[in-house]
């Protein structure tokens, strides 16, 4: 075993390692800040964080229940519909590296406010300008979510360092709740507005505007930027870093296939659009429980391999049950799928921290895992559209589930070992 990849299995207090790594090296940073961070109204910041997190999935999960109506109304083929579900996920990865650059220039709080307004603009474009607007708005919305998604964990680490683990769980639960609300409410909203899918999709710009209003005090207050920069060496050459990244990307690919295509699959099996949207919504709601409990349980053992294996096996069982199982047991399979995917995503975030020696390495590993991982994840929804276009049905999609799921399991088992990535951070 490489000396830099020394096992952490003998360390005491593994359950607290997540919080410890998040606050490690923060003291050095605080010494070079121009002003200390003082939270005059922490409850307002917490409320703002929750409201922002609630808006990071509706633009992704609201499209799937009305995808058939959108495709019919705009004359899209299945491959074009697959591209439409792929674009936002691709932008999550492509635009994630912009987040730290923007934050250093303008400050995290101001960037979050500006990007929230961009997100609202993207949702408006997608619902109002026909074919061009649907694709252009999807790009803007995906890019916005990619930037904010990188910044929020950093704000949590900075302002709630002693409770970072708990706040990360709350943040993840807010993501799942936003996805569930959008998946379940978009079709009823469309029907309320005379079966206009554009109104059902456009509704979700309102929560983004509300979140921006609540975030405005944070943008006005702002925080001084660090005057010392850190460079992390060796990360992109490290096999363990790539194992974490590939696990993140492959399990995310399955998640965005579910967001983008599960309602269409279920409609093809005989469900109404409303019923299909409710099944997706219910599955995502179940993720609230496993996303909070899986990291806590995983840090109680010697490593995370058992937890990862359980999460991925539940995910595969749920996917195959929804695709091939009797419709009478559909809700049971949806629950199994939600438990698996909630745990898999939360464990991917947990691995980023547990595999890093300090917060600077964790930040760079997070950027790598999200940038590369989400770019890889975007291929899954596109492949589903292509396969459906070629076969005219959904049965062959099971092969995509199998390849992605087994690959995620294999890389996850490697990433779940109690090791650290071979990377070091240094001041520049």
Automatic annotation (TrEMBL):
Keywords: Membrane, Transmembrane, Transmembrane helix
Pfam families reported in the protein's UniProt record: MFS_1
Transmembrane helix found in the keyword field: yes
Transmembrane domains' residue ranges: 43-60, 80-99, 111-129, 135-156, 168-189, 201-219, 240-259, 279-299, 306-327, 333-354, 361-384, 396-413
MF term (GO), any: transmembrane transporter activity
Keyword Membrane annotated: yes
Coiled-coil zones: none
Entry's Gene Ontology cellular component terms: membrane
This protein's name: MFS transporter
Species in which this protein is naturally found: Pseudomonas laurentiana
